[in-house]
Design brief:
Layout lengths: L2 H21 L3 H12 L6 H33 L1
Helix pairs in contact: 1-2, 1-3
Length: 78
Amino acid sequence: MDQTFFIHLFKEYGYLLLFAWSIFKGEIGLMISGTLCSKSMVFDYQNVLLIAALGALIGDNTLFFLGRIYNAKNSKIL
């Protein structure tokens, strides 16, 4: 496998991977995306920023609401 295979993979599924990774606290994924963006190989800076911010926002809010729901149920048990 050469470098063009991985670049092709990132071009096909890179934004989807970045979004999914950002939901689960993907600082490393954001650094990799920033590196590829700076080299103008795969990503566009505005798209990386937008997708990472949306993924982090959705992930944080989802985990917050799950914590509120399950915390209320667990407080009744205790």
